[in-house]
């Protein structure tokens, strides 16, 4: 019997042209101040509160719930919330107003109803700047944007921050968030933290909860800097600052020859340098980015395209186009999309704006607060329902995975060489799916004394790629993406970013962090009953994975070891990698689909 695959006939040049035209037309409309803000990640209905991440869907697509939530506004209210939970033997998770961490770190246990959430949404009023000592102390619920604006108002700058401003200070340090730098204290924000107050469970004689002030060489401080929310509630964070400065940025779109040699010098030469690599296009974009004097003329901003408000129409059209190419296994269509988007990014300097309105020429010079982080899709009047962040879960917009691997600096060049070899083996078209998003974003983090930070100078690579609406439907060229993921995490032992990644990336993490045992010792000391733990945060911290159900490898919940972990009925079987033979990936095999379907009785 002939097994026919229904081919969706798509006029892809027309679709691409339509999306491109829509983007161009809409980008000239005033929009950034008028967009529907992201939904609150916690929704309560009187009986139960449901927590989602910023994308509206967790890795396993199962919601997290808790019967109650509290909203402290002061440190004492925070202490009382922890005391109350401790007295009543409730398990606790801290949630923020953003919930932009992708893994289920903030999810309370699903094994018991005895849980509660503590939100920092309303714990955000204090930003105290000590100009003489160049430090700022903030409530953990303060947003990155509020912090950086306030600091610059006092003629100071926060040197490190993630590129995305939809984060709270408590959330970002808890997960080791970073920008890019090997200079000074480096690109990770927690390495600029000089003190933390942490609310932990206490004895009855201590009122069931106490506030610890941590700083200096205290092992508790080294543990608390990056603590995944499992030690207690971070109440206040004290950060070091520097005199205010501006930055001067130029993007150089060029060939990708020799990235594997250039990346080290690039970081040494440019304080905030990064590299975006579009492998299917043989293109590298070097970001030449150094600080300049605050009096240098220039009032530019970095309004990164991916974080701008998008028209709902454009997001939906982009998504349905990509989906159609997925369904029809149309690599060429995906490659056209990638080419179009890359060209557009080059035209608009990926969102850099010389005068806050449009890009005219390089370099773009602006203040540290206006250049380091962006996220204009966050701000909004709820009146404009036609504009949102591209991934807003209320529209049928973008849905993607984020893989973020952190390499010892010395090994990163070999990873690049491997991806190039793989590209030669499989044809570059199979990598277009990555280039539709942001290619490989390469950034730098300096060695840190945080137990769950990077113990050596490191290079971080992020890449995003299509996630389907249906977890049971395999993705086009998913074998290639899985192989790259496994090359990163298992061939080169890269560490996963705690706030990103699919579940498999956390396998074996304890062995990757030399101070992991010290972290767990501190955890036992400050939270002996495991009040701040859940099976979800254990999954990440302990890197255990017992998932082995049918299709578990399709969404990265496991690495396949048998065909059933892929999708034999749809022609995806568990196979070794093309280059890294230890990899096990789900690969489409037209030849095997027929016999498999016959075996399974799907066709007769
Ligand atoms: C679009 C996008 C872009 C991103 N870009 C970057 C980037 O450039 N660089 C980067 O490194 N990361 C990036 N991230 C990841 C992001 O920085 C982290 O997910 C960050 O932790 C999110 O902060 P949040 O305030 O939303 O915290 P949440 O996601 O709500 O919480 C994170 C964790 O911290 C815990 N937590 C939060 N507050 C406290 C507290 N006060 N005390 C104790 N525990 C607490 C929570 O329980 C949870 O475990 C990005 C994420 C997205 C969605």
From TrEMBL:
It comes from the Eukaryota. One of its GO terms (biological process) is L-ascorbic acid biosynthetic process. PROSITE patterns: FAD_PCMH. It is an enzyme of class 1 (oxidoreductase). GO terms for molecular function: D-arabinono-1,4-lactone oxidase activity; FAD binding; L-gulonolactone oxidase activity. Keywords: Ascorbate biosynthesis, Oxidoreductase, Signal. GO terms for cellular component: membrane. Residues 62-244 form the FAD-binding PCMH-type domain. Gene3D superfamilies: 3.30.465.10, 3.30.70.2520. Its EC number is 1.1.3.8. Residues 1-35 form the signal peptide. It catalyses: L-gulono-1,4-lactone + O2 = L-ascorbate + H2O2 + H(+). Pfam families: ALO (PF04030), FAD_binding_4 (PF01565), GULLO2-like_3rd (PF22906). NCBIfam families: pln_FAD_oxido. Belongs to the oxygen-dependent FAD-linked oxidoreductase family. PANTHER family: GULONOLACTONE OXIDASE, L-GULONOLACTONE OXIDASE 3. This is L-gulonolactone oxidase. It comes from Chenopodium quinoa (Quinoa). The lineage of its organism: Eukaryota, Viridiplantae, Streptophyta, Embryophyta, Tracheophyta.
């Amino acid at each position: 019997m002939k097994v026919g695959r229904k081919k969706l006939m798509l006029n892809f040049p027309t679709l691409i042209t339509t999306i491109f035209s829509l983007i161009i037309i809409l980008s000239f409309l005033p929009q950034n101040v008028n967009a529907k803000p992201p939904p609150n990640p916690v929704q309560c209905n009187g009986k139960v509160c449901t927590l989602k991440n910023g994308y509206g869907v967790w890795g396993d697509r199962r919601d997290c719930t808790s019967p109650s939530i509290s909203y402290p506004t002061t440190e004492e209210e925070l202490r009382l919330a922890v005391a109350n939970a401790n007295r009543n033997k409730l398990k606790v998770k801290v949630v923020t107003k953003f919930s932009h961490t992708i893994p289920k770190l903030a999810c309370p246990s699903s094994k018991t109803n005895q849980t509660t959430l503590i939100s920092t949404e309303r714990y955000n009023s204090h930003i105290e700047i000590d100009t003489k000592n160049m430090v700022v102390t903030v409530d953990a619920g303060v947003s990155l944007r509020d912090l950086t604006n306030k600091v610059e108002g006092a003629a100071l700058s926060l040197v490190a921050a993630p590129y995305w401003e939809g984060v709270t200070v408590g959330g970002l340090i808890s997960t080791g968030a970073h920008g890019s730098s090997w200079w000074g204290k480096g690109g990770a924000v927690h390495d600029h933290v000089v003190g933390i107050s942490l609310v932990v469970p206490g004895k009855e004689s201590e009122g069931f909860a106490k506030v610890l002030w941590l700083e200096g060489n205290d092992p508790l401080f080294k543990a608390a800097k990056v603590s995944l929310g499992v030690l207690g509630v971070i109440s206040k964070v004290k950060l070091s600052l520097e005199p205010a400065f501006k930055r001067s940025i130029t993007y150089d779109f060029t060939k990708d020859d020799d990235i594997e040699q250039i990346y080290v010098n690039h970081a040494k030469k440019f304080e905030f340098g990064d590299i975006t690599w579009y492998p299917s296009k043989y293109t590298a974009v070097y970001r030449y980015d150094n600080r300049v004097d605050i009096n240098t003329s220039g009032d530019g901003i970095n309004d990164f395209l991916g974080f701008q408000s998008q028209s709902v129409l454009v997001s939906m059209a982009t998504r349905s186009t990509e989906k159609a190419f997925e369904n029809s296994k149309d690599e060429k269509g995906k490659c056209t999309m990638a080419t179009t988007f890359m060209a557009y990014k080059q035209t608009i300097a990926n969102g850099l704006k010389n005068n806050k309105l449009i890009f005219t020429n390089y370099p773009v010079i602006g203040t540290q607060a206006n250049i380091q982080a962006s996220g204009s899709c966050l701000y909004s009047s709820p009146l404009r329902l036609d504009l949102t962040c591209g991934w807003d879960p209320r529209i049928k917009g973008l849905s993607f995975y984020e893989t973020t691997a952190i390499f010892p600096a010395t090994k990163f060049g070999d990873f690049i060489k491997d991806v190039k070899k793989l590209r030669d083996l499989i044809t570059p078209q199979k990598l277009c799916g990555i280039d539709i998003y942001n290619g490989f974003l390469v950034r730098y983090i300096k060695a840190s004394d945080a137990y769950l930070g990077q113990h050596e100078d490191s290079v971080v690579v992020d890449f995003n790629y299509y996630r389907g609406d249906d977890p049971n439907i395999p993705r086009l060229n998913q074998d290639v993406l899985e192989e790259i993921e496994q090359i990163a995490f298992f061939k080169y032992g890269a560490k996963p970013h705690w706030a990103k990644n699919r579940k498999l990336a956390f396998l074996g993490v304890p062995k990757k962090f030399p101070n992991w045992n010290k972290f767990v010792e501190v955890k036992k000391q400050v939270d002996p009953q495991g009040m701040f733990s859940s099976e979800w945060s254990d999954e990440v911290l302990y890197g255990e994975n017992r998932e082995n159900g049918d299709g578990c490898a399709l969404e990265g919940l496991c690495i396949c070891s048998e065909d059933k972990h892929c999708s034999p009925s749809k022609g995806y079987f568990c196979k070794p990698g093309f280059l890294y033979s230890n990899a096990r990936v789900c690969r489409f095999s037209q030849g095997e689909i027929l016999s498999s379907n016959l075996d399974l009785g799907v066709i007769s």
